[in-house]
Design brief:
107 residues; mainly alpha; disordered N terminus
Length: 107
């Protein structure tokens, strides 16, 4: 009976640890995607009329297809480490990295 209880307790600890790390990973992805969407939307709101786009939606679509989940997640992870978890500093870092990324894109 003690072995069964020990196995169940161990399984529960493993499951909780795994689900917690998965939840943190998803939360980071959610933050990265939310920030990427906000950055893209803000940029397109300012530039689409003077650019090559027929609508703000075309601008959003093009940038969203270029500024992928992988890129935004990488930026978010790097900014989170640099900012030591301070959400305001993460946001400032993400804006800076997004603007740098924009400049590097072919026109």
């Amino acid at each position: 009976m003690n072995r069964i209880f020990t196995c169940l307790a161990f399984s529960l600890v493993v499951a909780v640890t795994a689900s917690t790390s998965e939840a943190q990973e998803w939360q980071g992805d959610d933050y990265a995607l939310s920030m990427a969407g906000a950055l893209i939307n803000d940029h397109c709101g300012r530039v689409w009329q003077g650019g090559e786009y027929i609508s703000i939606h075309a601008c959003n679509y093009k940038l969203a297809s270029l500024f992928t989940v992988a890129i935004s997640s990488q930026h978010f992870d790097e900014c989170r480490v640099l900012a030591a978890g301070d959400i305001v500093m993460i946001a400032d870092c993400m804006v800076e990295r997004f603007n740098t990324w924009l400049v590097q894109q072919p026109q």
